[in-house]
Amino acid sequence: MNERLPAAVVAGLGAWVPPNLVTNEDLADRLDTTDEWIRTRSGIGRRYHVPPGLHTSDLAVAAGQRAMASAAVSDVDCVVLATETPDRRVPGTAPVVAERLGLRGRGALDVNAACSGFVYGLATGAGLIAMGTAATVLVIGADTNSLYLDPADRSLYPLMGDGAGAVVLRRGDRAEPGALGPFTLGSDGCLVDLITSPGIGSEQRASGEPMTAADVHTRMQGRAVFEHAVVRMSEAVGTALELAGWPQAELDRVVAHQANLRILRAVGRRLGLTDDQVPIHLDRVGNTVAASIPLALADATRSGGLKAGHRTALVAFGAGASWAATTVHWPELDLSATHFPYDHAGSAA
Question: How far is residue 296's CA from residue 43's CA, in Å, rounded to a whole number?
Fold first, then answer.
C-alpha cells in the first residue's frame, strides 16, 4: 500500500428495506416447511420483499439519502452501485439513482459481483479517491432478489430478502478512524454454476433456445457454496489483516456477508472469534446479497455490537465465484436518519 496516497474514509452510513414483511410462517404452507426447519438450516426467521412497482433503484435511493444525511453532505463526486438486480439490462441503474439523489452530471456506475458486490464497490470507491478522481464517493449495495426466485423453490426462496445499504466515503488520512485498509479481491470462474441465473444474458440468447421462466430464476448449489464460502472468507480476512499489518489476535469484529448462520459461525471459529465478534443480522432480513454488509453494519452499530474504535474486517463471498475483504477502524457515525427493518416509516423515498 502506498502510504502517500489519500485514504477512503467511511463518513456516513444508511440502510433501508422494503415494507413487505415475510415471516417463516408465511412460507410454511406454500413450501411445505416450518419455521423450525428454516431456522435450523439457515438461521433466518424473516425477510422483506419489494411490493409490485418498487425497483432496485427505489431501495438504492432510500439508502443513499440516509447515508448522505449521516455524513451531512448534499453532494458527492461519484456513485457506485453494487447490484445483481438492476432495473434494466441497459442502461446501468447507478445513473438513475444519482439523478434521483440530485447528483445529475456526476459519475455513476454499476458493479456486479453478486454478494461480494459491496466490498468490490468499496474497493472501486477507494481507488477513485486514491487516484484523485473523486473526493467523495457514495457506495450503495442494493438488490431485489425476491423478483428472481422460483416461488416453489423450498431450498432457496426462504433464504433471500430485499434491501439496500450505503456508505459515503471521503478523502482522508490513513491514520484516522474510518479509513479503509488494503483490499484483497478474488474470483474463480470455474465455479460459475455455484450460484447462477442464466437467463437474459448473451449465453442464453446465443443458444437459440427459447428462454423459460426457469432460466431467469436464481439457482444455487447449497452444499458447495457453504464449503467454498467458509474457506474463501476465512482466507480473505487473513490476507486483509496481513496487508493492514494487524495481528489476528487484535481483531475485534468481522462483519461478513449474511448468507447463512452456519457459514458465519464456521468463519468465526476458523478465525478464533466468539459469536459476539461476528454480528448477525440475517435472522431478521435474510440474505440481501450486495446490501447485506452495509445493513449488518448499520444494525450492529445501532445495537452497540459494533463500536467506534473496533478493529473490523469486512468480508464477502458470492456468485462468480467472487470474494473480497478489507479492514477498518470503525468510526463514530450518526445513524439518526437511517431506517431499520423493525421500524418502518412508509415506502422508499
Answer: 15
